[in-house]
Amino acid sequence: MDLYRPIYHFMPERNWMNDPNGPLFYKGDYHLFYQHNPYSDQWDTMHWGHARSRDLIHWEHLPVALAPSNDRGEHHCFSGCAVIGDDGLPVIFYTSIGIGERNAATGAEQWMAVSHDDMLTWEKPAANPVMTADIHGGMVVTEWRDPYVWKENGVWLMVVGGSHEGRGCALLYRSDNLRDWTFLHILHEGAEQIWECPNFFPLGDKHVLIYSPNGPVQYSIGSFNEDMTFTPEQSGIIDFSGWEGYYAPNGLLDDKGRRVLWGWLPEASRGEFKGAAGWSGAQSLPRILSLDGEGGLRMEPAPELAVLRGTPVSLRDLRLSGPDWDTGVRGRAFEIAAEFELLSGPIGISVLRSPDGQEETVFSIDPVDGVFTISRTRSSLSSEPHKTDVTGRIDLEGSSRVSLRLFVDHSVVEVFVNGRQCITARVYPVLESSEGVYIGVPRGAEALIHSMDIWPMRPIGQQTER
Ligand code: DQQ
């Protein structure tokens, strides 16, 4: 039994995976590509793995879509996007990293690949590279990678992540035919040294920019003006975990008009721990993005996930006034949906807990300090995995009511609070008996659980029926 391999988060059948790449809804299927080393569970030369799904939940694994073309001096196919071109053919844009001399000459290049067989195989046209860094004229851009392409008002646009004068940025380009590109300007920049994997898309009457600055993934919401500048109005954090749990998200627009986002759940937290092997990296649950009434971002787990739920344990109207209330649930793959009121002080939900409490991972919300935390101090008896707290600021907007969705999937703990704030962490408990689910408040504090449903979650396995 693999204690750590997630069963309802998307993963390749084996070996290494990192960033989600080129998510695209095409002819009735969700397509998801991903950074992949097909040969081992460690990061090495990057390929694009590929899978498709009819229902957003169950996936069919497809052949590797992109492999480095060594004969063209290519060493890695780094992250990127996929779009349907004006001729109806799917096109991938990605960052091509060269071997030795090629890399020394031009650095990272942006390449394209086209599919003539409904995305099963991909051809890299002779016209590559589509862009080299000299497209910026005299401006020096480093760490230039991860193209994201979309069409707006009849014009093809692209953002690419990079660093300019020590500041992370998203750079903007335009094209009329997807082949010839012109650099426009820096769309947005920040104090972080790099911005990776930018996404920029319309949402409601606003535009949203998402980027991964080598730490917790950020967003800005604002206006995309007629002169193609961006005026940010609000900003926030997609997920507070960064390298400990969630990085480099990428999204698509589906046939229901929904913006669906996946993020890579890295295994940096494994540290030197060798108990999990043969695979590395999972994708987050698909998150649906929308705007709330005040121009802020909502993030909710896709409703389709409900097909995975088994028979729940349901609690109603429970007044909690002490620690360690045993829900009776035991498991490593479940969802908790709860509505509660924090009458005074914090609340904690302990999962993956051994009978003697030696191992446990505790998610808590402290309304007084305005923080939520996944505490991993006792998450594993092994000294090797990371055990730092993963924590973030939480804004309950003056209300004591909380609506929580908490997903545990073996080594994944992924949490949504009030459909607005997310936090994810990886944990590696070593005891087979670490399966308990307890809730509690510190002595002297009080919380009212209006409802709490805990469903065992079924594995997503492989989609076979089409
Ligand atoms: N991972 C890719 C890069 C990207 C980084 C390489 C983010 O394209 O910038 O595997 O995790």
Automatic annotation (TrEMBL):
Keywords attached to this Swiss-Prot or TrEMBL record, sorted alphabetically, are: Glycosidase, Hydrolase
Q: Which GO terms describe its molecular function?
A: beta-fructofuranosidase activity
| E.C. no | 3.2.1.26
Top-level taxon: Bacteria
Record flagged with keyword Hydrolase? yes
Question: What Pfam families does its record include?
Answer: Glyco_hydro_32C, Glyco_hydro_32N
Q: What class of enzyme is it?
A: hydrolase
Gene Ontology biological-process annotations: carbohydrate metabolic process
Hydrolase keyword on record: yes
According to the entry, every stretch annotated as the Glycosyl hydrolase family 32 C-terminal domain falls at: 327-456
Q: Which InterPro entries match?
A: ConA-like_dom_sf, GH32_Enzymes, Glyco_hydro_32, Glyco_hydro_32_AS, Glyco_hydro_32_C, Glyco_hydro_32_N, Glyco_hydro_beta-prop_sf
Glycosyl hydrolase family 32 N-terminal domain mapped to chain residues: 9-301
The UniProt entry's sequence similarity note says: Belongs to the glycosyl hydrolase 32 family.
What is the official name of this protein in its record?
beta-fructofuranosidase
Naturally occurring in which organism (per UniProt): Paenibacillus nasutitermitis
